[in-house]
Amino acid sequence: MSNVKKNYTEAELNNMNNDELAALGTQLDGVTVAFRKERFPVEGDPAEKRASANIIIWLVLSVLGGLAFLGVYLFWPWEYKSLGEDGLWWHTLYTPLLGITSFVAICALGIAIVQYVKRILPEEISVQRRHDGPSDEVDRRTLTALLNDSWKTSTLGRRTTIKGLLGGAGVLFGLTVIAPLGGTVRNPWKVRHDLDYSGDGTLWTSGWTLANEGVKLYLARDTSTIAEMHDGESGSHYSTKGLARLVRVRAEDLAAGGMETVFPLAEQDVNDGDKWSKDKEVYENHMHSIHGNRNAVMLIRLRHSDAQKAIEREGQEDFHYGDYYAYSKICTHIGCPTSLYEAQTNRILCPCHQSQFDALHYGKPVFGPAARALPQLPITVDEEGYLVAQGNFIEPVGPAFWERKS
After folding, report:
1. Coil, strand or helix: which one is 114?
2. Could you tell me how far CA 351 lies from the centroid of its own chain?
């Protein structure tokens, strides 16, 4: 390296061809090319054609996989179908097809690139000594020449079919990654449908918002009941008639220090206790309540001695019923379920990122990344002894990046 000339004028650099600049660049960068061999020295070699055909096959598969992914993503029936509904089988294929087609698009592109490097590019072993400091003009010029030399020796410029397919596969690969993000972009303030167990499409509504419309909402537990097999004149079939997936909760159903996950249950959808009917069909509505992504609530019965020490939040002093407190189960960090309750410390735990909330201090965060208190649902007991919602949450349920007052 000590004998290599480093100072070149603009005119000298302009007089050099690309091969000379590339050779100079390797010398200036301390690169020693120990071994270099063309894969196919003779143009038109049958082995070269076979290698190209193999790469083309993989690129075609990648293109087809990308197109199939976009087709499934845009046109396949994706909306939820419950048991017994028409189109359930097609709906269940939606996610697997997205996985399979994206796998084909991405993996086939990766294999094609690896095959091109292994079977088309020249074999080369180079050793480079590292150096510090910024690059000067001669380094920049020679680097450009090296890149040009790499393009020329790659022979990709004259491989029109492979180049076109590689470009197409690359674009489709990008769309395969980016397109699903489009489904997450939505106007959080737009009302999309009538208010039901899933809210109305806006981010501040949930099934509990039905209380604002005067609907009596019970706190109901999930019994995990599934469709039953029935035998009749028309043959065997599954039926949910008379079944209740959600049942109402009484105050005495929960032991001191206990916790229960509950969901909103409208009075018209009750099918338990004295309101049970073998002919009532409410199972589908129960499932809609359970699947409502902001409906889950932690019903906690504090030990009486602990409840005496509870600190109420201003304006929410009457949200609890005796020793019973109801907090949203949706973590205010990024929306994970706060599914753990530690009775000895009265802390609510989120297993995703270890946020902890104090049930004795209006669900205030005491540890972890969550910065907002869990919204508290106002509850009471009706004349029959069932726990019901006194009203809706007074703030949006979920992560702290929505408008909140806490």
Report:
1. helix
2. 17
Task: Delimit the domains of the chain by residue range.
Answer: 10-184, 207-226+239-389
Query: 207-226+239-389 sits in which CATH class?
Result: mainly beta
pLDDT by residue for the chain (406 residues), tens digit each? 456 676 788 888 888 888 778 778 777 777 777 777 888 877 778 888 898 999 999 999 999 999 999 999 989 988 777 777 788 888 889 889 999 999 999 999 999 999 988 888 888 877 776 666 666 777 778 778 877 877 777 777 778 888 888 888 888 888 888 887 776 777 778 898 999 999 998 888 999 999 999 999 999 999 999 988 877 777 788 888 899 999 999 999 999 999 999 999 999 999 999 999 999 999 999 999 999 989 999 999 999 999 999 999 999 999 999 999 999 999 999 899 998 999 999 999 999 999 999 999 999 999 999 989 999 999 999 999 999 999 999 988 988 665 555 5
**E strand spans, 176-296:** 217-222, 228-232, 235-239, 246-248, 258-266
Tell me the whole-structure pTM to 2 decimals.
0.62
325 and 300 Cβ atoms separated by less than 8 Å: yes
DSSP letters, 71-111, are: HHHHHS--S---TT-TTHHHHHTHHHHHHHHHHHHHHHHHH
Angle, helices 46-75/160-178, rounded to nearest 10 degrees: 30
| H/E stretch holding 62 | helix 46-75
DSSP per-residue letters across 157-197: GG-HHHHHHHHHHHHHHHHHHHGGGGGG---TT---S--BT
